[in-house]
Design goal:
- The chain has 109 residues and is mostly helical.
- It has one domain.
- Helices cover 47% and strands 6% of the residues.
- It has four helices and two strands.
- Strands 1-2 form a two-stranded parallel sheet.
- Helix 1 links the parallel strand 1 and strand 2.
- The longest helix is centred in the last third of the chain and has 18 residues.
- The chain is elongated, with a radius of gyration of 19 Å.
- The two termini are 35 Å apart.
- GO terms for molecular function: glycosyltransferase activity.
- Belongs to the glycosyltransferase GT106 family.
- It comes from Gossypium lobatum.
- Keywords: Carbohydrate metabolism, Fucose metabolism, Glycosyltransferase, Transferase.
- This is O-fucosyltransferase family protein.
């Protein structure tokens, strides 16, 4: 990232269609990744998760696990929220409701 002045907007951005094939990733995306060492893929869809062989799926999951990390600020906030939920749920027999809201561009009108 030093080469890009630690600014993600300076990193090459691949615009990929949602239903691109594995061959497209291999033939078009991989060479650019090998050349640049880092690329952005947007919008990123989980297209590969639908028909990838198990070995590719394992590699994809491992790469996501290793690459995706929360910043220390977000991690700290998450720990605080979990601690509060645990403490406050003691008053309700350990029960609480958790809601995960996810908005995508196509859903917001």
């Amino acid at each position: 990232m030093e080469r890009f002045d630690h600014n993600l907007t300076n990193v090459y951005n691949f615009k990929i269609k949602a239903w691109s094939s594995i061959q497209y990733y291999r033939d078009e995306v991989l060479p650019k990744l090998l050349e640049e060492k880092i690329i952005r893929i947007s919008p990123f869809a989980n297209r590969l998760s639908f028909d990838a062989p198990p070995a590719v799926q394992r590699l994809r999951c491992l790469a996501n696990y290793e690459a995706l990390r929360f910043s220390s600020t977000i991690l700290s906030l998450g720990e605080t929220l979990v601690a509060r939920m645990k403490n406050l749920s003691a008053n309700t027999g350990g029960k609480y409701v958790s809601v995960h809201l996810r908005f995508e561009e196509v859903c917001i009108i």
